[in-house]
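[Q] Does anyone have a clean structure-token version of this?
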Amino acid sequence: MFNKKTIEDIDVKGKRVLVRVDYNVPLDASLNVTDNTRIKLSLPTINYLIERNAKVILMSHLGRPKDTVDEKYRLTPAAKELEKLIGKKVKKFDEIYSEQIKDYILNEMKPSEIVMLENLRFDPGEKKNDSQFAKNLASLAEIYVNDAFGSSHRAHASITGVANYLPAVSGFLLKKEVEVLSSLLENPQRPFIAVLGGSKVSDKILVIKNLLNKVNSLILGGGMTYTFLKAQGFQIGKSICEDDQLEYANEMIKTAKENNVNLLLPVDVIIANEFSENAEGKNVNIDSIPSDWEGMGIGEKTTKLYIDEIAKAKTIFWNGPMGVFEFDKFAKSTKEIAEAIANSNAVTVVGGGDTLAAIKKFKLEGKFSHVSSGGGASMEFLEGKILPGVAALLDK
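[A] Here you go.
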């Protein structure tokens, strides 16, 4: 249940509306947008506002500029891409805030017009949540809408600061993200299975801890599994491992047993004699990893075990690849698990940058119930944390 006000709960007709979107999109060397998914996801909110003659002021960050103007991180490519998608002119400013911008928005801007401010991270006030920077942004509008779920775990000026000076409500994307992820934690159809991959246990500690109270089965793959294997006494060769997490790994295995959660770890792995695309690879049992070889992904028997478990699920959350899928030679396990989840009859929720890259690589877009737009934000939400950007909105 989403207990915050949305744009449908407030009168936006003819109003100046400041919208925080997430246009942190990938660009090629010619500064063209190579994946416009995040821009597309903002369209329902923007269209709702322009249909009601609101004056739409968009703001976003892009990349990691060092608190100053960096030509390769300007939002101009995103503005051009939005123009194409929405079929309407977008007036892009080359500054975040100025008296001229304010004068234009307050005195010249027409109903249903869209303007876009420059990259928020060109100003150090954004990440510092500087009150003057937030006040300047707020002075442009009468209503603030947060539709940037992917940035809502950060207490930045455009996420929480502005909400101190304007009525703050949610856009459609943020609302949907919170509703979908809340349903996973509060009322999933069972069996509920989480599939977690990626290289580091430390990135997933709090998620695993929280999910061990929620799921029926927890499937682990990718580089983080070698920490669990070493914790159980297996020799893992030169495989990636976080020695400071060994105790935690054993603790999680114990917690899973106590909670009657079926924790699935690899029984075999694909290994390589070096970390490269052209390395020699072979499939071995987890007790047969040579000292000078390293793990590249889950093995064939493990993949089959995981697919059989996935087939039982009514709800699946997936975050993280099962191995080094970027190398075609070692991509098979991630591909087969991804396809099993995509073809499942379960409610399927996926998130995380590497996971989305895998979905794209294996051409599985559109095959999941919900693809989360926020990697870090979705993981923090599933850790049970309250996101600052959601907390800042008006309660219903």
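[Q] Thanks! Anything notable?
[A] The mean pLDDT is 95.
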